[in-house]
Design a protein that fits this description.
alpha/beta; Collagenase (Catalytic Domain); YbeY; metal-binding; EC 3.1.-.-; RNA endonuclease activity; nuclease
């Protein structure tokens, strides 16, 4: 079983407490890590790799998105790998940061007719895969990443979030 050192921080927004988010994040990301290790032959460092999971609001993520991606708008999740990594490459002891915005997650969950927790779970998996070098900048990358997301979410008992959609 791949172990992760997950640092949780609730910075802004109407999120549950860190004590509530920690077990959810731990379960979701451990399943994702184990899936990558078992099915994608993803190497892991000998020590539990660390990542931070920051829960914030739309205003905060909009500022971050504008500063780091030159996109002056809120988004659901941002990932910042600690080191550049290609899929299948061995990560270092620090994976990076995942930042998730409460209001955007809520709006999208309603629009997608999914529960908040199911959509949050999907975004945690999505952000986690970015830390391992997966991306969706073109159709082939998107198909690969979305396929992984779908299979990991199935391990968590969730349906395909991309059913009936084209990649990207």
């Amino acid at each position: 079983m791949a172990e992760l050192d997950i640092q949780i921080s609730v910075e802004e927004g109407a999120w549950p407490s860190e004590e509530v988010l920690q077990p959810l994040a731990g379960r979701v990301l451990e399943v994702a890590a184990n899936y990558l290790r078992k099915h994608e032959k993803q190497p892991f460092p000998k020590v539990a790799p660390e990542l931070s999971l920051v829960f914030t609001d739309d205003a905060s993520i909009r500022e971050i998105n504008a500063e780091w991606r030159s996109q002056d708008k809120a988004t659901n999740v941002l990932s910042f790998p600690a080191f550049p990594l290609q899929p299948g490459g061995k990560p270092g002891p620090m994976l990076g940061d995942i930042i998730i915005a409460r209001e955007t997650v809520e709006r999208e969950a309603i629009d997608l007719e999914k529960s908040f927790d199911d959509h949050l779970t999907h975004l945690m998996v999505h952000g986690f895969l970015h830390l391992f070098g997966y991306d969706h900048m073109n159709n082939s990358e998107a198909e690969r990443m979305e396929g992984l997301e779908t299979r990991i979410l199935a391990e968590l008992g969730l349906s395909d979030p991309y059913a009936g959609q084209d990649p990207i």
